[in-house]
Protein 1
Amino acid sequence: MGKNAFKVQMAAEGEWQRLAFSGAINEDAKGTLMPFADSTGTKVILDLRDVTLINSCGIRDWSIFLRALKMNREVVFDRCPDEIVRTMNMVTNFYYRLPVKSVYRAYGCENCGHEQAELLKEGADYAAGAIPSGKPVKCASCGEMAEAFEPDDEFFQFLLSA
Amino acid sequence: MQLTFWGARGSSPVVMNHQGVLAFLETLGAKAKAKGLASIDQLVAAAKAGDLGVPLVYGGHTPCTEVSEGAQSMFIDMGTGLREAGTKYMSTRKEWTIFLTHMHWDHLQGLPFFIPIFIPGNKITIYHVHKNAPEFVRIMFNGVNFPVKWDQLGATIEFKELKLYEPVQQGVVSVTPFALDHPGGSFGYRFEAGGRSAVVGFDGEYTRISKEELGKDLPFYQNLDLLVFDAQYELEELLNKHDWGHSSSTIGIDLALRETIKKLVLIHHDPWASDERLHASINNARKYVKANLKWYENWKDQPNGPEVVSAYDGLTLTV
């Protein structure tokens, strides 16, 4: 699987524990994923920045993992790539309406074709319960205005069920 | 090899009542209007040509799938679809072969209304993996649940127990049972003939799906032309129905993408799913193939990926 091999790294952040996931969340991830449902503290950050792909088998296992993890724990999502945001928008039980602290949103520049991902943060860029108007983003390559690939009302759908 | 789907619903038969027909006519009328059709004749012609969508409805019989190769014909399960098959073939056939996946009611309930069992001289062979299958089939004919008793049936009915993973030959067709994930146990069958292969893989939740988890069952999904897959639920529903024994279209697509299965047939439709929802479901399944194909190098010579179709009562496919 190379760079797609699924890994989890656990690190303490004050009273929180950050679980940083990387690689593919697919049918091969189950064995690695499930032990973490029982081995964390009471406050957990799920950091999905380095997840490269997710398929339906992975969504199913993730949902079972998260259902167990969130019992008696405070759980938040952080640094979710757009692929993960799309999954949240399609499958509510992928995140069980838990708080999403930050997401990456993909932008493209019509002027030079450059593509980039911007980190958007809860509080500063969006809040649960409403679709925000997308903030203006400049192309990191040519400085012209970049456009989000997905419309605001599609990308931020997860906020309405949060 | 041909597969005919006599029953594509799971769990319970579905009927279209008066209100259902009215709703269907409204939908069909709107489609006809959008196409500028101006008469009933034009509407009928367009429907026959498939211009208003295929299928128009998915039907409501519970599982019965026919696999045939030349003159050899086998039925998988005895849901209410078997009644239709019996009526169609009763004047031309004396011998019938049935393979059972499991003992749940929706897979047996067609047998009492399968007319060939009442005809003296007919011979019916029922293959099964479950040890207690003969007992649970015969009990339907106890005179209480159905008025005709087992020993009053005209046909000779023989049970033959199969061993898991051991093939049985039916003419030129090799049939091998394997294990599925379903409460009480369920068994799929792989059919092979003339270099072609098809797997009937219902009822199954496919909780074991990685190569490692599938173990001895993995080869049944490899070098495969067609997989009939239990897709009763949408993925979101599946997450709330863990251990109910049924799966979802996109789980089947993950499997097909990984194992290079050429065609995936979605079946065991939820009885609560409307035709409109099933139309949407197959469209979403095809979108899922497109979105995920990029991750699988094994499809580079077949850039469209696996073909995904949704079974409906009366559909025939050639493998």
Protein 2
Amino acid sequence: MSRCAAHTWATEGAPELIELAAQGFLPSFLQQMISGAAAGAVFASLALALVLIYRAMDIANFAQGEMAMFGTFIAYALITGDFGLIGTKLGFLQVHLPFWAAFALAVIVSFALGVLIERVLIRPFEGAPLLTLVIVTLGLFSIVNGTAGLNWGYVFKTFYSPFPSDAFEVGGIFIGKQDVGIIVVTLVVLAIVFVFFRYTRLGLAMRAAALYPEASRLLGVRTSWMLALGWGLAAAVGAVSGMMVAPIVFLDPNMMQSVLLFAFAAAVLGGIESPLGAVVGGIAIGILLALVGTYVPGGQNLRVPFGLLVMVGVLLVRPAGLFGHIEARRV
Amino acid sequence: MKIASRAMALAGALSLSLLACGSQNSSTSTPQTDVGITSTEISLGGIFPVSGSASAYLSVAKGADAYFGYVNDHGGINGRKIKYTVVDDVYLPANTPAKARELVDADKVFAVYGELGTPTNLSVRDYYNQNSVPQMFVFTGSSHWGADYNQFPWTIGWQPDYVTESKIYAKYILQNEPNDKIGILYQNDDYGQDYEKGIKAGLGSKAGSMIVSEATYNAGDPTDMSSQVNKLKASGADTFFVVTTPAYAANAVVNAVKSGWKPKLYMNNVSAATSTWRGIATQLGAGASALDGMITTTYLKDPLDSKYANDAGVKLFKDVMTKYGGTLGGTPCDATGADSFCVSGMASAFTMVDVLKQAGNTMTRKNVMDIAAKKLNETNNPLLLQGIIVKTTATDHFPIQQEQLQKWQTDHWVPFGSVIDARAS
Amino acid sequence: MSRLLAPRNRFNLIAGFVGLVAFFVIPNVTDTFQTFEWAQVAAYAAAIIGLNVLTGYSGQISLGNGAFMAVGSYTTALMTTRLGVPYPVTIPIGALLAFVIGILVGIPALRLRGIYLALATFALALTVTPVLNNFDKFTGGHVGISLKPIHPAFGLPLSNEQWLYFFDWSLVLIVFVPAWLLIRSRTGRAWMAIRDSETAAVANGISLAYYKTLAFGVSAACAGVAGSLLVINIQYAQPDAFSLNLSLQLLIGVVIGGLAYVWGPILGASLAVWLPFFAERALGAKPDIGFGLFLIAVVFFAPNGLAGLIQRVTLRLHRPEGGVVAIPGVMEATPAEADQITT
């Protein structure tokens, strides 16, 4: 383009073009980015739970989503008083807690359940080969899913969202308040986890027990209980994820299954040992999926394969992910 | 039964045993009755998602079974009681064929009734038709059953099919809102395409100009429809056709409201349960007014609607569910009618019983199937809207082709206009 | 000759004989439903034999063998309906195609091990259904492909289900024998060496790349045959059948049957088909909770699966005074026997 033409374009044609783009393309694009980031935040929090368990014992917990779903059901029961089959049998459980109280209680109960599961179902298999542990988590998946289904049935329920469902309007772009809320909550959870591991003695003990079990034991760390705590923490974080996503996808026993596979992709993308990586990976995948869904023809139907393509691609090219350490194999 | 000899030579043993294999054909039937009919019992079978993610649909079987319990208590069918055996395929078409053989060969049912799901029923349609087992009143709105009757005369549907339903919406729009710009969200498979075909056929020559955008998703995808909704909104559509399944429909509408898009809403009947939209309205809070005016069709009475408080049919429903609601096991049907699947189950069971009664003393599979597929003319179904008849003829094998439009108002559906007949189109 | 009558081999001979008798007796004394279910067991057994090769003998975890089954299934479905090819002919073609795809999957899988391989194959399993659904012009999509009804060949006086039964189990034999021969050969020893210690295997000059990808290929070919058999049985191919659930069924089948045991796959397949049936009859619906508990109980009490359990029990009954002498197994070689070795 000659300088003359370029000058003309810049002063005359371009502003209209940019304005047109801003009116048409940009709002839609930004809107997609933000919806995507919010979906990604949900993946991120479940990915965080996966990372916590992986750091503790080197396995991918295929039942993490179900545990998150169960925690969400507990919150649902506390908010609406619908305790399902058990509720009708034990009629006294008629509570109606405000959201954040139910949220806190559900997190605590999930933590306890996580610890319980580790003690009862995982501990007998300490030291077992990987395949055995995979089967155990698959068995756990069935148990948790079946229990929720038996108790509350499979008709999907609406889950109260603590965030208003309308949007901030910024120059033609609608930013959902719920989306923003989800992102904020996820970042807060990440911050708490980070602070816990970095700056508390218990967090230090858990990290030590995962990395150097024998040495930690010699130093008085009860490594077995550290494992249980890891499961409890992961269950608690997972429950947060479930409670953030339930208003969007509606609550039923199978709601976390599609989230789980993107959470795996996020954990792998970010580095399966890195909590920060899990969150970054989650948000990245959420945005990527939204963009693919909108701008790639036919992309809406291929979100699942695309997300998995990302995961496999990362595994092949850089298994350690964005933030992970490349591990030397000990023989 | 002969047992194969324990010969040493493999080849010899193989051929011997092949020749010795006993016949596995069912016994020939006497003129007046058939397999599955005794002097006291009529044995029906059904394959449903008893467990797994689609188990919400089991309520159809529960509603039907409750009605059978009621009929059995009141003289049965010419003195015979109905036994309904329900087995589980977890909604997977890979499981259904084995279950079909279980019902036909191990349980020796007279007919299968009310089976659920399109791919699941398709996977066993060949088997039933080859073995002359009536596959009656399958619970899906696919247009396959009526359209393919000549090839598969042992299979018949019941509920209004999706193509018919879409044509009804199209008819209404052409008459009342001919300048609508329509965006459609549908499932990328046979089910969703039935609706899409129906809308386009119903709009006729105006389809190209009125439909400005389409978005799809695959069944089983994560239920987040935000990118689809954004795409439809960006196209400038002012009318949103949501023809999906409940979870996706709910998500799509919530996304539309959240994003500030306020289109006219058309919701398919499958996703229109009152309880679903009450829940969404609660969740939307102040934004729930966006739901008002949403249009869907119906063909069943809604027991939750106070105007049916004294309706004989609805009263019967409540009675039946209270007394016989739990006969199938698990959580019984809610007698208030909150679960619309229970209602449709009982409505179709009424037709089934009707057909069996009409067969009188000729309780053969052929006779029962003929009545259902060619001679049905039921006007007194207690749970169908007044004016809707269940009718089949030698050339029309779609039993129900009338529906009524209704609008959403705050917390319930309000019917308007008259029952629309799509039989001609 | 004495080796042939050693306890372990005696056990195998007896088991083999019992199996043979059962094979001929079953379709004669059961109704079409049960015969049909046993034909399904055959299809699953073929797939699990393949998975046994991959996971049991070469130590590579795969959560995605259902994808290879899909290759065989759709090859059969498309070739019979679109090209009019007789269904038996489609089976070796499907197996070959699956073999090639297995190799293609095995090559990048070389870079992955342990949980990463599990995750990658998990991803593979999850892509099958959406891809099959999406490219519906080619695959028939969600509504599926119906095959023409299959009747006994050569005009044999059998019911449809009996014919399927014999056809399927013949194919299982055709799959089993080469797999078994491979396992007994140098290839099998190389696989087991890789499974037990990759570093030691490399140090001994075994090519990881060659044997590991070969294992994937063989495993996929077996799964391809199984997929064809499945479609031939039900005469309907539909994407939902190839969800993650199928791959998990195979994995659970191979573990519960007994990894690296010759009879493991057949036991595992039998359980995979019959256990849900009995559970449903007993409890009214397919039980998720019971299933999960059962899984965990089995891997806890019988870490070597049913085959391992049976073998442990029978060998204990047959043990001569001095314990079992360490002979390399004629019919199987598993690390589980290390605890029975005395000198």
Protein 3
Amino acid sequence: MNPNIEASLEAANPRVAWIVIAGVLLLLVGEGGWLWHQARSNSAIDQENGHLREALVRTKARTDELRTNEARIKALYARLNDAIVVRKGQSDDRLPLPRAANPKDQKGDPPVIKAFRESGCEVLRGPNELGNLSVTYALRSSGVEFHRLVPLIAQQENSNTFLVVDNLTLGRPESTPAFSKKPTALNARLVLRLLAANP
Amino acid sequence: MKPLFVSQENIIKRAYRRDRWFKLAGGVVIAGLFLQLAFAYRLIQQTLTGSSLASENRILSYSIHTANAARAKYADLEKKLADLHSWGPILTNRLPASAVLAAIEQAVPGGLVISHLSLKAVQQAPIKLSTGVFMLPRMYQLLVGGERAQGSDSALVERFSRSLLAKMPSSSRQLSQHVGPEETERLGTFQLVLELPANGNYHSLGLSPVQQPEENL
């Protein structure tokens, strides 16, 4: 080896080269990390914007839908809501009033029950159950013929869309023979339930 | 050997030029400089994109706020619509007892007479509403009992049962059938027990299905 070169190699400190390489690499890694962080942050904002855009479209569509159907919803709600019985004097957090507890009290009867009562049925209201939005009525009659009873039930089922028959028992009186052509008043028992709402 | 006519400074400069580690360091520095250009380009690009996305985000947030404010005006209507939706299962699945009675009347043949009949909800399912639950019958048991005319065909009850099943809601089935013997002083009896699901499919009863509120709203 050339003695000059040998001497120069001895004089220069190679650690300087290493420090420069390490410094440059560190700088590049740092810059890369910064870019990556920036890209991630942008991607997060982009994703959030996507969600916001979807939510905006959904909210606008929902509002438009509500605005367009407002009249129909109100009309349908009013029609169906009329069929719901409001339980008077008894809410979930109060004890029933003495008058309200009377099962034979006719004042608070819904129109459906009134119609049955007017047709000669005896009506007994069942007790309210906590959390159960039903009013139960037990009806009994021994003076209604089949051909009057079926239209009566049909009419009430049509007038109250939330009328549910839990139990219906019809029996021919013992005194009436089988295959009798005479109009026969049946022994009828019905358990009806109506959708109720608390006041 | 020690160089005599070259200064120490020159020796070191030469070493910086010729040593491979310094050459490598120089290469890394040059590459780093070129990468700085790419970095600057990407940084500007990312900053511009970020600024544009942030601006879009602000606009969208404001639009959402406005849209929510517009929707809030219909809160009452939304509650009504939610109620309508919650009532849907009751409206569609309720079994009309009058239609069942009318179907029985149509199906009963001349040689039979019904003396007792019962329609009882044997299975109920809770329908969740906004303030509680409503128990909706999901399965009914229909019991039809009566007498047979003297000398009537013994298969009459079977035909009545088939005809009755054809008129009942879909998936209805017969649970039992009993035909009592005919005696000299007494008429023969029969009893049918059917299971009727309250599933909203009441075409056979002559009823068209109730439209769910969400279908038309």
